[in-house]
Fold this sequence. Notes:
The complex is a heterodimer of chains A (about 260) and B (about 230).
Chain A: H1 4-18, H2 20-42, H3 51-67, H4 70-83, H5 86-90, H6 96-128, H7 137-164, H8 169-179, H9 181-192, H10 207-217, H11 224-248, H12 252-256
Helix pairs in contact in A: 1-6, 2-3, 2-6, 3-6, 3-7, 3-9, 3-10, 4-6, 4-7, 4-8, 6-7, 6-11, 7-8, 7-10, 7-11, 9-10
Chain B: E1 13-18, H1 24-32, H2 51-56, E2 58-61, H3 73-83, H4 88-101, H5 117-129, E3 135-139, H6 147-162, E4 166-171, H7 174-180, E5 183-188, E6 191-196, H8 198-205, H9 210-218
Parallel strand pairs in B: 1-4, 1-5, 2-3, 3-4
Antiparallel strand pairs in B: 5-6
Helix pairs in contact in B: 3-4, 3-5, 8-9
Amino acid sequence: MLNPSLVIARKEIVDGWRDARSVISCMMFALMGPSVVGLVSLAPGIKGASGPLVGLMSVFTLVAAFVGGMNVAMDTVAGERERRSLLPLLLNPVDRRDVILGKWLAVSLFSVVGLTCNLLGFAVVFVISDMHLNAPWPRLLLAMLIGVFPLALLAASIQLLLSTACRSVKEAQTYLSMVVFLPMGVGMFLVFFPAARQTWFSFLPVLGQQLHLLRLMDGRDLPLLQSIGLGCLTLWLAILVVLVSSSRLQRDEIIYGN
Amino acid sequence: MRKLSFQAPDGVITGLLGANGAGKTTTLRMICGVLKPDSGSIFFEDAAGDPLARQRRVGALLDHMGIYSRLTARENLVYFGRLRGMSPEYLKERVGQVLSVLGLESIGDRRTSGFSQGERMKTALGRAILHAPQNLLLDEPTNGLDVPTVRSLRDLLKRLRDAGTCIVFSSHVLDEVRALCDRVVILSNGSLIAQGSPSELCSRTETTSLEEAFVKLTCSPETSQC
């Protein structure tokens, strides 16, 4: 017998996978970055040059980690409230912490799949274009995947928390779309204003990951302890946000709908 | 809800009767353990128990059907059976039985997105009885159903009652309550107004029908209604 969290995660993954809109949206956002970078890299006059393009690549990768699970996050709590299927779920003898944990696992999986597809898309771009990189691309992409992985889990937890505060998918869509501005804004800021970078940025989620990505793309090695510390802090924050979401699920307003 | 105290024995269909907003759904939600009463206790066979313990002993179909439209009827049932920790062998056997009892065998492997209101209701009812609960709570389960489906639902509930299941059934449709319930609990404005068998309520109010008894009981000046 599976743990209730795993039962819920499995159902949400099957449900999310069968939602064509969710899958198409996840893939489109994941492949948006590689498509843009690939097309620009092939443009006359830019061909072969990589500088700002590589910087933009890191922004697209951060965004992919945030949008991969966005639709599933909307559907899994706000959607359940809208369809009135949350109450029948809560009628089962399952701790509400397990309910949220299961949903978080499913959203995280979609976020990580979005991130992986994004990096695979960049792999194709590197193969078909002759962009100059400061590091071998397989090593670069693997390091990016490992570095951004905890951020995908944090993104999933933030999206799930917002989804618990919304009564419909449409409402959730409004707020969750705003969250995407976080990696986009932070990423753009650090790419185009390098002088503003501070050492302590490296210890903050999103900012830290972006700085690490830029460092990797410059061909420099990452300070191992700092990277592990940032990963652990991001993961700890993700778990904290999941716990806040599960406490929200204890409220009567979840049952009454307002 | 206030001043609410009643018993629902095994092998009896207890009807919660009241106007809209009387507190029927809230009462059922509290019994199920999804809403916590500010004070008071809910006992199952003389044991209070925490909400999760109560939920293990209850099958419920409240006002939300909540069927997953991208899953088949069978997948919906299997999901909730797994959540209740049913073993794979027992779950497979029960899902087959429930689909058969509810007449859903032929469409059990279809996604529920194309189901009619009655088929959805049957699937939701299947979810409530899947684990063969000793206590079954139903909140206006016949809403929106056609006559044949209502009749088959009534037959099923009578069979479950005869097998010793405690059934609490809420409705504001008097004909339905009269046709099904052995005992009636009348609520108004969140309070208990009266309880007893339909005939007891009629004799107490000196009326000849449950409808007249209900009107007489709920339209008194004390309840400030009517």
